[in-house]
Amino acid sequence: MVTLNVTGMTCGGCAATVEKLIKREDAGAKVTVDLASGRVEADTGVPAETLIKAIEAAGFGATAG
């Protein structure tokens, strides 16, 4: 399980984009995005650093949390 704090998500579309970015790295990942808190949980074996790089490349901020 990877927990991230993502900044810059302002709508449901942003949350869906972050979910898609994670699923690009691991198609079988189970992803939960809480738009209000910016908390993202992903049941994946992909390292947090890889997910953070993908999310940041799309213009969001992300830290392991």
Automatic annotation (TrEMBL):
Key words, A-Z: Metal-binding
Pfam families tied to this protein: HMA
Residue ranges annotated for the HMA domain, each copy included: 1-63
UniProt-recorded Gene Ontology molecular function terms: metal ion binding
Domain of life: Bacteria
Name the UniProt record assigns to this protein: Heavy-metal-associated domain-containing protein
Organism (species): Blastochloris sulfoviridis
